[in-house]
Write a structure and sequence with these properties.
Blueprint: H1 3-10, H2 66-94, E1 99-102, H3 107-120, E2 123-126, H4 127-135, H5 138-147, H6 149-164, E3 169-172, H7 181-187, E4 191-196, H8 199-208, H9 224-242, E5 247-250, H10 251-258, H11 268-293
Parallel strand pairs: 1-3, 1-4, 2-3, 4-5
Helix pairs in contact: 1-4, 2-11, 3-11, 4-5, 4-6, 5-6, 6-7, 8-9
């Protein structure tokens, strides 16, 4: 089935819930967002809380003591409230601008994207999932990439073209989003954030779940060292494209900033808060530029 047909069929169903606020769709940071279809599909969106999320409480030392349990609950509640407050503060200046998350696919990136969509009352899309759906499944998409590279890249571009024409989306973008000037230009219709996850964490994730990367360049089987080597090569090819994002959130730097000795202690909530802060900085700069351009 053609990509356009898949996207259009997704757009035929109503949204799962009403937006946080109703406002006109914004002009993008570099281009004007086309007026989107008002109905976005339930079956292609993941609005609920992500299935996998490491909460802040997981980094706390749990004990059987009631006071310790209460403290953990308070920390989790405080984190949730802080995220909701930051999302509310950001929303007014964001004005429906879509968010594109780039970087090698991994569970942290996708889980964070779903949580971010929840907080902003946006809709969540995974561009690789749409490409796979259009091709007839993940295996068919990989086969298409191996047999018809040009056709596969055209499908990726068509998906991005459709998504970039809408507002109020959080898009977990696949590797193809940064591999051509056309696709990079489409990302300019929103805010792009590079989620830079350490390669060893990604390698471990692939060993546990080999469906995380839609790439024929990563072997379906192999040792940790082999997978890590393949990921490093892929990262080297894509890093320049990732670096064009409007902002970067490095998991390693975030762990150092938060004083975590173990990088695994960085939670989905930690990353989401950092992303919201970066979005806030970008929207403030844009607002200042708009005000400076106004005639006296």
């Amino acid at each position: 089935m053609e990509t356009t047909t898949i996207i259009n069929s997704f757009l035929s169903n109503p949204p799962l819930h009403a937006p946080l606020f109703r406002s006109k769709l914004p002009c993008s940071f570099s281009a004007t967002i086309l007026h989107p279809t008002s109905h976005i599909p339930a079956q292609s969106l993941t609005i609920s809380r992500p299935l996998f999320r490491r909460s802040l409480s997981s980094s706390c030392s749990l004990s059987q003591d009631t006071d310790a349990t209460s403290t953990t609950k308070v920390a989790t509640v405080d984190s949730s409230l802080a995220l909701k407050k930051k999302a509310t503060d950001v929303s007014s200046d964001l004005r429906g601008t879509s968010i594109f998350l780039v970087g090698l696919n991994n569970s942290l990136k996708s889980s964070m994207g779903k949580l971010l969509a929840d907080l902003l009352r946006y809709y969540y899309f995974d561009s690789d999932a749409l490409v796979s759906e259009a091709a007839g499944g993940v295996s068919a998409a990989i086969a298409l990439k191996e047999s018809d590279e040009k056709g596969f890249r055209e499908s990726e571009t068509e998906v991005l073209k459709q998504l970039s024409s809408m507002g109020r989306l959080v898009v977990c973008a696949g590797d193809g989003a940064v591999q051509s000037s056309t696709n990079l230009a489409l990302l300019r219709h929103g805010i792009s954030i590079w989620i830079d996850v350490p390669l060893d964490m990604i390698a471990k994730g692939i060993i546990e779940d080999k469906s995380q990367l839609l790439s024929s360049e990563i072997a379906n089987s192999g040792s940790y060292s082999e997978v890590l080597s393949q990921i490093a090569a892929l990262y080297g090819n894509l890093r320049t494209g990732y670096a064009t994002a409007d902002a970067t959130v490095s998991i390693q730097k975030l762990a150092n900033q938060l004083g975590y000795e173990d990088i695994d202690a960085v939670s989905t909530e930690d990353i989401t808060m950092e992303v919201l802060k970066e979005i806030e900085k970008l929207t403030r700069v844009k607002k200042m530029m708009e005000e400076a351009a106004r005639p006296f």
